[in-house]
Design goal:
The complex is a heterodimer of chains A (about 325) and B (about 325).
Chain A lengths: L3 H21 L6 H10 L1 H15 L7 H17 L5 H25 L4 H19 L4 E2 L3 H8 L1 E3 L5 E3 H19 L1 H11 L1 H6 L4 H27 L1 E2 L7 H11 L11 H21 L5 H36 L1
Antiparallel strand pairs in A: 1-4, 2-3
Helix pairs in contact in A: 1-13, 2-8, 2-13, 3-8, 3-9, 3-11, 3-12, 3-13, 4-5, 4-6, 4-11, 5-6, 5-11, 8-9, 12-13, 12-14, 13-14
Chain B lengths: L9 H17 L7 E3 L2 E3 L1 H24 L7 H15 L5 H25 L4 H20 L4 E2 L3 H8 L1 E2 L2 E2 H19 L2 H10 L1 H6 L4 H27 L1 E2 L8 H11 L11 H20 L6 H17 L4 H13 L2
Antiparallel strand pairs in B: 1-2, 3-6, 4-5
The chains are: A mainly alpha (about 325), B mainly alpha (about 325).
Chain lengths: ~325, ~325
């Protein structure tokens, strides 16, 4: 329940922002726009779900954008050049990205290194590997791709809930359940509260670290497949900077960057807020897309400052009591 | 104590020599220098010249990392300051342009320092804000275009030469000497190391840790601004999208290669700059050898991992044995 207030604030920001947008451009309040928003941000929602787990556990994963890039190139080449059936290619890349994440988690745990720098190396490695595979954009023409792109559930009001949006929603729901209802989820929170404490409580810290980074990379792999559906191509420079977008979404969603607190739902709302800003800028037409970055930066600052304030408030009575005793 | 080059620099110097030797094998003319139009040319000068932005960034970054911090925004600050310099260059004199660009870098550094020192945010997060928003701000300044200029003064800053040596190299060397004199000529360096070693203990011992942290981020911002101006002067234009892109990672890598621990504490300015040169020598070597430049990222990833594993606390037992062996030898 402690995670509720920040999430509530995120929800209020989203609703208020959406209301403001709708006031200025009444057309925004349609299922068509909402459907597009979900489709455009499907890959971000999936990566950010994985990032939520990592950040709640007290870590960070900077490699996700590169893993997405690598996945799109690998899938495109496997299907188009090497003649591998799409499903086999998907399974192969998911296994590969999971192994990649597990390796990073293992290095972080075994050598006791900061996750930030290990995943940075992972980011170089994955991006470099995708450059090696191909520096050109490889179009994908497999029939599966057109089938999936064409598939959509009609929503009332003419909106289309596309297949990739459905995949994203399913993963978000799965993430919520995994974090809230399973032992794994409880252990993630425990790790974020303190590694030593968690270890004393009987959490297998090493195994958990490996599993958490494995999950993050696996979801990045799925996001990469979704991204290749979205663009029908594989390109080694795709999804540059997505790691920052997803960290921003997680923070705006009320997850504490020091770990120990947060929720997948909040992250989902954070992704929607970013999507909303983008939609507003598209509707306005005169604003340039770089305003998205500035607005994200401002929101990021506002939410971190808010967290800092909340944490300070929470500590104050405890500090006073301690002061009185000594 | 005042020696700028401690004994622990041996590994870095050896690494640089090995890479230089490999470059010599790959490209036999690597060490050739020739004087043309009053300026030296050659692969070595090229390495120094191209390494300048990262060397400047690493000068600021090493101080930040010594306080146990990190500055992810230096690339974005480069873009902002390059954009400011480029858009003012043709209408204002060089001192005004420089003052505006460096002033902007100072403000950026002050912002980061304020978030970390006063609001108590984690450095990664605090500087992430400017990293995300900074490129947007740079785009705002250039209005989304690539701003070009023809002011001979600013162009000279990127392409000119004094006594045959390109100006950027001299600026970087000057900054290294200036930073070294300020930091090692006074107790400042020691206080910064104390802050990184244990901020709370230093605070209790009377070190103004907040002022230290604020100061290193400001200096990092100024160094990034200078790097941004030089990068803009080099290409005679400012590209808000690509200026300084990913250079924050190169700067961190340079500092790590230079043996400064990411956990704060002891640092070395000279070795950080040497780290930047090692990276650039590697880059140039890969280019000269005819491999696609895409190999750069892979090689960097392997180097980061190798250096990290050597620095790992878990392997410090091994390092301790090595140190003891070295002590008993002479």
């Amino acid at each position: 329940m402690k995670g509720l207030p920040p999430v509530l604030i995120t929800a209020i920001v989203l609703v208020a922002g959406f209301a403001l947008c709708a006031l200025q451009f009444p057309n925004i309040a349609s299922t068509r726009v909402v459907g597009n928003l979900l489709t455009d941000n499907a890959f971000l929602g999936i990566v950010a779900t994985g990032m939520t787990f990592v950040i709640i556990s007290g870590g960070i994963d900077l490699s996700v954008g590169s893993v997405i890039g690598f996945t799109t190139v690998f899938v495109a080449l496997a299907i188009e050049r090497w003649g591998v059936p799409p499903l086999v290619a998907f399974v192969a890349i998911l296994a590969l990205s999971a192994a990649f994440g597990a390796a990073m988690g293992a290095i972080i745990h075994v050598f006791d290194l900061p996750p930030f720098i290990v995943t940075l190396a992972g980011m170089f490695l994955a991006r470099g590997a995708s450059f090696l595979l191909s520096t050109e954009s490889v179009p994908i023409t497999a029939p599966v791709y057109s089938t999936v792109s064409d598939f959509a559930l009609r929503m009332p009001g003419g909106g289309r809930l596309t297949a990739i949006a459905i995949i994203m929603l399913a993963i978000v729901i799965g993430g919520v359940l995994l974090l809230r209802l399973t032992r794994f989820g409880a252990n993630v929170y425990a790790l974020g509260g303190g590694r030593a404490t968690a270890s004393l409580m009987g959490v297998a810290v090493g195994k958990m670290t490996v599993k958490i980074y494995m999950l993050s990379s696996l979801l990045a792999g799925i996001a990469g497949i979704v991204f290749s559906f979205y663009t029908s191509a594989g390109y080694s420079l795709s999804a540059v900077g997505v790691e920052l977008d997803s960290i921003a979404a997680v923070v705006i969603g009320g997850t504490l960057l020091t770990g120990g607190q947060g929720s997948v739902i909040g992250t989902f709302l954070g992704v929607l807020i970013q999507g909303m800003i983008q939609t507003y800028i598209n509707f306005d037409g005169t604003l340039s897309s770089w305003w998205t970055k500035i607005a994200t930066g401002v929101l990021l600052f506002a939410f971190i400052a808010l967290q800092q304030g909340l944490v300070a408030l929470a500590r104050r009575p405890a500090a006073k009591r301690a002061g009185a005793v000594s | 104590m005042t020696a700028l080059l401690p004994r622990r620099g041996l590994a870095q110097i050896l690494a640089l020599i090995v890479i230089l030797a490999v470059d010599r094998v790959v490209s036999p003319q690597f060490f050739d220098l020739r004087l043309q139009d009053g300026r030296l040319f050659g692969s070595l000068i090229d390495v120094l010249n191209r390494g300048t932005p990262v060397a400047l960034l690493s000068l600021g970054m090493v101080l930040v990392i010594a306080t146990r911090g990190i500055d992810l925004s230096v690339g974005a600050v480069m873009a902002i300051c390059g954009a400011i310099a480029a858009s003012l260059a043709d209408s204002h004199s060089l001192p005004v342009v420089l003052a505006a660009a460096l002033g902007a870098g100072l403000v950026c550094g002050l912002w980061n320092g304020f978030l970390v020192a006063v609001l108590g945010m984690q450095p990664i997060v605090a500087t992430l804000i400017l990293m995300v928003a900074g490129r947007g701000i740079a785009q705002l300044i250039t209005e989304g275009r690539i701003v070009t200029f023809s002011s001979p003064d600013l162009v000279w800053l990127g392409n000119g030469a004094i006594l045959g040596v390109p100006v950027p190299i001299e600026i970087a060397l000057g900054m290294l000497i200036l930073t070294g004199a300020v930091v090692r000529g006074s107790a400042l360096g020691l206080l910064i190391e104390a802050t990184g070693g244990n901020a709370r203990a230093s605070e209790l011992a009377g070190v103004g840790t907040r002022a230290m942290i604020l100061a290193v981020y400001v200096w990092c911002g100024v160094c990034a601004a200078l790097a941004g101006v030089i990068a803009a002067a080099d290409i005679m234009g400012a590209d808000a999208n690509n200026a300084g892109l990913w250079l924050e990672l190169d700067a961190i890598l340079a500092v790590v290669i230079g043996g400064t621990s990411l956990f704060g504490g002891r640092f070395s300015l000279v070795l950080a700059v040497l780290g930047a040169l090692i990276i650039q020598t590697m880059n140039t070597g890969i280019l000269l050898s005819g491999y696609p430049p895409e190999f750069n990222l892979l090689v960097k990833a392997v180097v980061v991992l190798a250096v990290l594993l050597l620095q790992s606390p878990k392997l410090s037992g091994f390092a301790g044995i090595m140190a003891r062996l070295r002590r008993t030898k002479p």
